Amino acid sequence: MLRITLLSGEELIRLPLTELSDVKALKRRLHQHHGLPPRFRQRLFNNGEILDDDFQLDSAMDLQVLIVSFCDASQDQRRELCAAAMDGRLAEVEAHLQLPMDPDCRDDESRLTPLIRASGDGHVDVAESLLEAGAQVDMIGLNEATALMAASCGGHTAMVELLLNAGADKNLYDGEDWTALMFASFEGHAQVVRMLLDAGARRDLCNFENDIALDLAFRHAEVRLLLQTSDQGDGA
Q: Which parts of the sequence belong to the Ubiquitin-like domain (predicted)?
């Protein structure tokens, strides 16, 4: 049995060892079922020593949990986190999140968040960690673009699925009144278009030039067929 208390001595929970494997699993359990912040902001101690996330929970023990605030990240740290997210360097991203850094921090040059950076290049594992750390799925970056727009423009289907499952808004506009569906249609990413339509993306929204997704897909016959079929289905 694991007994978890606050540093004050107040007991938080007791859990059977059979339900957990390591400290990471315990932190996720404490976040998902007991209201604690994401694992990156939790510190677990045993006999005054901090336990790493990969520490195996294979014997009964008393643990203490401490909740830490986000650090005051420097400009270099913010830039490094965004660059690591863009390049898909998961270990570096997690190391920054463990400081802990705010997952929604932006570098001062591009004003893009780490999630937008990861989404634009299709790094699903990085995006999963950022979302677990509490990254806001619809936070806007340069030109008011979102992570879903970046993933849709790049044709990254697994990323689009992840973001949709995380609750991303399908119908947000960027600074030029483009939606995720418009980006996917213009670039000819048929599978992404299908995913967005299935998720309820509106194909009738107009951009600043009064174009809808169908207009923007003029080079891509498969995408046009998808959008036209959706149109017929909506009117049926």
A: 1-59
